[in-house]
Amino acid sequence: MQANSSSSARRWCSATANEYLGAVGGRVLAEVLLGLLLADPTAYLHTKPRWQPILPAADGTFRLADLLTAAGVVGKRG
Fold first, then answer.
1. Considering the domain boundaries, does residue 31 fall inside one?
2. Is residue 30 part of a domain?
3. Within the chain, where are the H helices?
4. In a domain, 45, yes or no
5. Number of domains comprising the chain
């Protein structure tokens, strides 16, 4: 099942790599992701509240695209 999820994510990311969410879509996505993290007692927000990403970022800021790049789902940004 994980292979299917991973390959589905790659297809979705490659199909939408040059598209961006607008202000409302971005806000909705951010709130859904944050809500999922807040509802999960095993998430880093609860178990490691001071955690910060240590992966290198393309431009000095760490964004979701950097995480997807590190995971090998999308190519390098920048």
1. yes
2. yes
3. 2-15, 23-39, 44-47, 64-70
4. yes
5. 1
Angle at CA 51, nearest 5°, toward 10 and 8? 10
Which residues of the chain have a pLDDT value below 50? 1-3
Is residue 76 assigned to a domain? Answer: no
Structural contact between residues 64 and 74, judged by C-beta atoms closer than 8 angstroms? no
| Predicted local confidence at residue 71, as pLDDT | 80
For the record, the structure tokens of 60 come out as 């000095």
Its domain, for residue 48, covers 2-70
Return all residues near 63 (Cβ < 8 A) that are at least 6 apart. 57
Q: Are 10 and 73 in contact (CB under 8 A)?
A: yes
Q: Could you tell me how many residues make up the chain? A: 78
Residue 13: the pLDDT is: 56
Structure tokens at 68: 């997807």
Token pair 């998430």: residue:
43
